[in-house]
Design goal:
Elements lengths: L5 E5 L1 E6 L12 H10 L2 E6 L11 H14 L4 E6 L7 H7 L5 E5 L16 H10 L5 E4 L5 H11 L4 E3 L5 H12 L4 E5 L1 H5 L3 H6 L12 H12 L5 E2 L8 H10 L21 H10 L5 H16 L8 E10 H4 L16 E11 L2 E5 L2 E2 L14
Parallel strand pairs: 2-3, 3-4, 4-5, 5-6, 6-7, 7-8, 8-9
Antiparallel strand pairs: 1-10, 10-11, 11-12, 12-13
This protein binds zinc ion (ZN).
Amino acid sequence: MAEPKTVTIPAAIDLHIHFREPGTNKAETIASGSKAALQGGYALVCDMPNNPGNPTWTMERLTQKQAIIKKTSHMPIATYAGSQPESDNLAELALMAPHSIGLKLYGAATTGNARDYQPDEFDAIVKTWHKAAPNKPIMLHSGKDNLWEFIELIANRHSHQLHVCHINSPTDAELVMKAREKGAKVTCGVCPHHILKSEKDEVTEGWFARMQPALVDEASAAELFRLFAEGQIDVLETDHAPHLAADKWAAEQENPEGIHDPDHRTCFGVPGVEFALPLLFYQMKRGRISLERIIDATSKSPAEIIGIKLSSTTKVTWRLEEYRIGDKYPKGLSSSGWTPYMNNLAVGAVEKSFIGGKILIENGKFKARLPQVANSGSVI
Ligand SMILES: [Zn+2]
C-alpha cells in the first residue's frame, strides 16, 4: 500500500470542552484532556464553567483553574466565566470578565443544573456582562423552546454578541439564521455527535449515547450536517464532556429508561475532542464536506468568535491514513478510557503540531508542552 498523503492546515480551536478540573468528576484532568486535544489537532480549547462540585462562578475559582492550566496543560486553554440566576455572583462576574474568553449561560437542565429557566431570569447577568466585557461573547446552552427568547434578550435587548452552542435541531438553526438576517450578532455551532450519530444509538448504547442536548433522529442529523457543510451552522464544537465508563454503567443499571429528574441517576456527556477532525476527514473522503469548509469551521470561524489571532505558522500536519478508531486506539485517547466512536471509520493522525512558535508534536510523538492561559486578543 502506498504511504498515506499528508496535509498541513491551520490548527483547530474548540470553543466548547469540559476538562472537569478542579471538581468531583475524575474522568479527565486538564493534563489528560489537553493531551487528547493536541492529538486531535487543536491549538486552543475553551473550558466551560460548570465543573461538577466546583463551578467557575467566582474569581477565586477561576484563578484556581487557570493555575492548574499554567502548571499542567499541554497546550493553550481559555476559560469561560459562569453565572446562573441562583449563583448570585454579579460582583464576581465583573471581576472574572477581564480574565475570561466569554460567559457561559445554561438555559436548560444539564450537568450542574437541575431545571429549565426563563430567559428573563438572566437579564441582570447579561446587563452586568455587557458592561464588564462588551466585546466578549455570551455562549448559550438553550432549552428546547426558549432559544428565540434568549436571542431577543441577549442579541437584541442588550445588543451583545451571542453564540448558540450545540444546535441539535434544524428549527433552532433556522432561528439563528433568521436573527442574523435581521442584523443580530449571532453565531452557532454543532457537535460531532449530533451530525454523525442519532437517537437510534440510544437503543443499542443506552447511557453511553446520552448527552445534553440529546441525539436527534436520523433525518435531523442529516439536515444538520448539510447546514454545517454549507456553512450556515458556523463552527464545529465538540462539547467534550467525559465521564468514566463506570459512571455511565451505574446510570445504565439504575436508570435504563434515561429519565431526567432529580430522583434518577443521570450521566450526560461524551468525549469528542480527540477524534472530531479525523471523523470529519472521513466525511471529506466520502465527499460530504470540503477541506476548505473544515478549516473554516474548526479554525477560522471559532478564532473570529472569541477574538483570537492564530499565527500563520500555527499549523498541524496530518498523515491521512484511514483506520477504524477502536483498532488504532482501543481505549480512545481521553483518560475516560472510551469513545462513542469506537467502531467508526476515521482519517488522519497528527504527524506534526507547531503551535505558538513551538513544536509540540513531531513524527507523531509529544515533544513539548505550551501551558498557557489564552484570552481575547491572544496570538497563538
Ligand atoms: Zn457542554
